[in-house]
Each structure stands twice: as structure tokens, then as C-alpha cells.
Amino acid sequence: MPIQHSDVLYTAVATAENGRDGRVATDDGRLDVVVNPPKEMGGNGAGTNPEQLFAAGYSACFQGALGVVARQAGADVSGSTVTVKVGIGKNADGFGIIVEISAHLPNVNDHAARALLEKAHQVCPYSKATRGNITVTLV
Length: 139
Hints:
The chain has 139 residues and is of the alpha+beta class. The chain has 2 domains: 1-48, Single Sheet (N-terminal domain of TfIIb), CATH 2.20.25; 49-138, K homology (KH) domain (GMP Synthetase, Chain A, domain 3, 2-Layer Sandwich), CATH 3.30.300.20.
């Protein structure tokens, strides 16, 4: 269910100049990065790229969701990490992305870890936003 404007707690604002070969900055000045296409896509790879920025945001959000569901389940996810891989490639409409989410939960057995990942995938705002739009694999 979509949130209403009155329910918004925070809004991030970023502006891009020159698309994939330029600069992206937030309105508060906390993020200001050069973006370039990766070498695999014909760029010089000197800066970051939108896929890296998306992976960074998704991994942080998913880690937060994992912490919430772990607390609810009474699981210890201290020392855990979440890695998100974002792939980009050609599809019938031009380009599309795929995502792989993996987590290392040193204090949780494999069965319980899988259940926590699946639950986090249901509550993570990034997962909700992309559900049905891109392929997301949990590892």
C-alpha cells in the first residue's frame, strides 16, 4: 500500500548533471560525486555509477530491515553484513537491472538466516519498491 504525502518522514533530494557521465549531488551537500559509466559499458570508470549508488542504498536499507525482523524474532544479528549486487544489461525495452542480496549472519543458523532474509525482503522499503519490477535473488 503506498504511503500518503502526509506520512512522509524524510525526503532525500539529489540532482544529476549530464546523466551517467557527470555529477550527482544532494541538496544538503552531504553527497557530491562524479559519475561515469563503468568500463564494461564504454565509460572510463573513473567515478561511481548509478548501480553502485543503488546497491549502497539497498544494502543499507536491507540491513536495517534485517535488524527489525531479527529483533522481532529474538535473533542475534550482531556482526552481520548485507551485500547487494546490482547488474545492468540489455533487455527487450533497452536496459534493465537485476539484484542479488546476500547476507552473512555469524550468530544465526542457515535455516533461521534464510527465514530472516525472506522476512526482511517483505518489509524492506527498497524491496517493496522494486517488487514485480526487477528480479531479486536472496542468497
